Every structure is written in C-alpha cells, then in structure tokens.
Amino acid sequence: MQTETINVILTKKTTMAYTDSNVRPTQTEATPLLEQVETIRLEANTQLDENQRSELGQFMTPAPLARLMASMFNNLTGDIHLLDAGAGVGSLTTAVTEEACNRFVKPRSITANTYELDTLLTEHLKTSMQLCQHTCTDNRIDFKSNILNTNFIDEAVTLLQGDVFSERLAPRFNRVILNPPYYKINSGSTTRQQLSSVGIETVNLYAAFVALSIKLLEDGGELVAITPRSFCNGPYFKPFRQLLFGQMTIKQIHIFKSRNKAFKGDTVLQENIIFHAIKEQTDNPITITSSSCAEDKEVSVREVSQQNVVCRNDPDMFIHIPTSKEDGDIAVAARSLPCSLNDLGLKVSTGRVVDFRAKEYLQMEPSTTTVPLIYPTHFKQGFIAWPKTNSRKPNALKACSGTDKLMVPSGVYTLVKRFSSKEERRRIVAAVFDPKKINSQQIGFENHLNYFHNNGKGLSLSIAKGLALFLNSSLVDQYFRQFNGHTQVNATDLRSLRYPTLKQLKQLGSHYKSKLPEQDVVDKIIEKTLFCQN
C-alpha cells in the first residue's frame, strides 16, 4: 500500500498559496474552503486527457454538488473516519470537512482516507488536504489525511479477505462519500474475479465501489454517493440491490429534473442520483428530494415508506422513486392491476437477430429466399410498416440453416422498442405486428425489439392490440420512469409490470383500429376500462 500522511499544520491565516504556482492564483482566507478546492478542480480538468476521462468514467465533482452531498450526513460529530474512493482532487472530502466545521456541534477529529490512482490528481489532492487541515486547525479539529495512490478495488478486496498484514493496517471507516468512476466490468476480467471472491457480483465499476464501501463501513456508519441511476432496475444489478438493502437503510434519495445538470461543464448524459444510507436495518420513511440542479434553492421534498420505494413482494427489488404525490398515486394505480405476465400465460423476449453478428445473412430488400426482418424503424402509427423504402437498415434476413434459430413463426405479436429516441414522448413505445399485412411463414425480430408471445407463438389480435394500447399509456410511461432512469427498456422491466386481465386487454384492444389512438384518447380508454368500472 502506498500511503502518504500529511501532518503539515499551517499557522498563517493571511494567505494560502498552492504548492504548484503555475497559472494558479493565490487564495485568501476570505475564500470558502470548497471554493478554493474548486479552483484546483477546474485547473486539474484542463490537464486531464478528455478521451481517457470519458473512457474511464472519470468526472470530478463540482463544488455545489459536493456541498449538497456533504449536507446529507446526519451525524458529523465525534471521530470521523472518512472514505473517499476515486477522490480526484478531493472535492468531496473537502465538502465534508467544510460541512463539519460549519455545524454547531463539531467533530473531535477527521481522518480522511482518499484513494486516487491518477498521479496528476494526487498532486492536486495533496494541496486540497493541506487546505482542509488549515481549516480544521482554525476550528480546533484534529485532521489527518491518508492519500492512497493505489487501486481501491485491489486494496478493499485484500482488506475484506482478512490478510494478516492488511488487518494490522486496516483503516476504520464510519463515513463514506463517493463519486465513483463508471464503466463496464468484463465478465472474465480479473476485477470481476476479485469482486466475486468477496461476494460482490456487479457489471459496472460504480456499483463495485459502492458495494466494497458498504462492506468496509462500520455498523451505524453513513454513506452518501452519486451514481448513475441504472442500478435501480434490470437483472444485472439485482445482486447489488440485494447487498444494498440487505446491509443498509436508504434515508434519502435526490434526483435531478434535468439529465445533464448534475455535472454541468462535463459531457455526462447519464441520469444520476444521490443517495444517503446508514448501515442499519430500520423501517423509517425515505425522504425523496428533487431539484433542477445542485444550486437550485427550490427543492421539492416528500417522505415515502420503504415499501413505496422497494416492494417487499418484488423478487427483483426494483427501486422506485416517486417524487410527487401524483407519482405516488400512479404507483398505487399501476401496482393495483390484477395480473402478472405469468398469470396471463404470456411471455416477453428480446429479438434474436443481433445484426452485426448476422451480417452475412442481412439483405436490404426482400426476395424469395428471405424472411421479413423487423427493426424499430418499421414502427408506424402503432403497427409495423414493412418493407421500408430507402431504409438504412436491412429489410430482410436470408432463410437458411444459419438463421433458423433467429426466426419466430409468423403470428400476431406486440413489439416494444428497447431504446426510445429523444423525440419520443414515452419511454415505452409499442406496436402490433399483424401477419395479414406481412405475408411470411417466419419472421426475424432484431435485437433492439422486445416481443410479447404465447410460449413462442403469436397472440390473438385483440390481446396484442390491448397490450400495445396499455403499454403506450401515460400510466405505464410515468410509472416506468420511477424505476428506470435511462432510455433502455429490458424484457425484465416489462415482466416486472402488473397488467390488466385478459378480458380487460380484449376490451382495450377493441378501441385499437387501423392505427393507435392519440395519447389523450389512449389515456381516457385506460381510465374508463381499468379504473372506472362498477
């Protein structure tokens, strides 16, 4: 372990000059601590390789965001042993230090354990920690900083495995603050194997950082993290959700109304959330807050039960975030529907044709030796319009032994786009495949589609239309957004929904004629058929 401990006590209160004088201005004591470190962050940003930052998911925390996160800690008294993994220039540690110094009851001591691999950033981190120590000295708080220029996953796994040498040096952590890097972890990678060795199964580095931090956190300790919202649903993050709710109690979730406002100035397009959790098991309400950005003073606040965030009877443990009373009412209505897909005897699967793997079998135009290949681009007014002239996507799949397993028998299917475009108002976009309009014995559904079926075969036309109308409703869209923070719609997400009965689906389908009705008409049909009957 490479550890550098900073014990420099700065006694002068007049000025604080940076250790590297190149370009950087001198700061005075009148400048708040976090603003001083914000200047360091902005300077460091100009020195980082932009491509590498994007590739590694390396986005440092702006001062307003760091301050918002630090404010979420319930208790900053006593002896604080802070973990900040992926610390960058130390903005988050600085924010916690500033917050602790500004509270009426101050801590006795702060021990900041910051992990950062990038040697350029660790040089800036040293300066930030010196500034923290200066501020703590003024507030009669003991401050110690351990800057660890080592791989956090390597170190955390070693600590959790109980190596004798590591146990002797193992730091205590009773507070964690994180803005972890995020990028995918390959299934066969050393990192994945390391995580598995300590009981952590996840597909992204950000969830790995949070999971390791949870395991290292002392009982009763607090964690605040900003991460992509993708862990809230989907099968790949289920083990992470089980770990999170098995060891922690969520106290607060904060969401941003705009996708790109959390990390203003950086090209971060993922929807991020901040969550505060304590390592204990309680059934206390969860505070849901939302704002347009970290600086926004108009923050909406509401309390909801744990059950409204994670349903006890949901085996997938999807995390719902109802930010308003309307969201809560929508969730109650959506969950009150009587049927699961299993109850209906229906299934949903993802299209089998992965086009880049089937390149040799794709044809732009159909022929006597091909079958129809359906893409999202073929959606039109609630049905499938095929073939599409002047399309950039192939219209056909060659029928041969190499493609037999990629096809499904012709029939009526309800199709859902796996990815919605920015122009579409709804996250879930459904359409009906009607074989009467497309004559073929078999069909290929491309991988960007999900399709509803009856044990691999088609549905009745009335059921398929009813499903499509239901899935295209505002009720489903608004409920779906409570647990899905991105534009991808997985088959698992669709399986998690509650559905009307077969009789109700047929009633809904009777209103679906030659095209999908307008949105307000769809919503009125849903209301009348599902919620206004005697």
| Count of discrete structural domains | 2
Relative strand content = 15-25%
- How would you sum up the major sheet? 10 strands, mixed
Level-1 CATH class name of the largest domain: Alpha Beta
Strands ordered across the widest β-sheet? 1-6-5-4-7-8-10-9-11-12
Which structural class should the secondary elements be placed in? alpha/beta
Measured between the Cα atoms of the first and last residue, the distance is 69 Å
Q: Assembly state here? A: single chain
Question: How would you portray this structure in words?
Answer:
- By secondary structure, this protein is α/β, with parallel strands linked by helices.
- It folds into two domains: 3-308, Rossmann fold, CATH 3.40.50; 341-531, Adenine-n6-DNA-methyltransferase TaqI, Chain A, domain 2, CATH 3.90.220.20.
- The protein is 32% helix and 20% strand.
- The chain contains 18 helices and 23 strands.
- The strands form five sheets. The protein has a ten-stranded mixed β-sheet, sandwiched between helices.
- A hairpin with a 2-residue loop joins β16 and β17.
- α4 (91-102) packs parallel to α5 and α14 crosses α17 (502-509).
- The radius of gyration is 27 Å and the shape is elongated.
- 44% of the residues are buried.
- Mean pLDDT is 87; it is low at 1-28, 164-168 and 262-269.
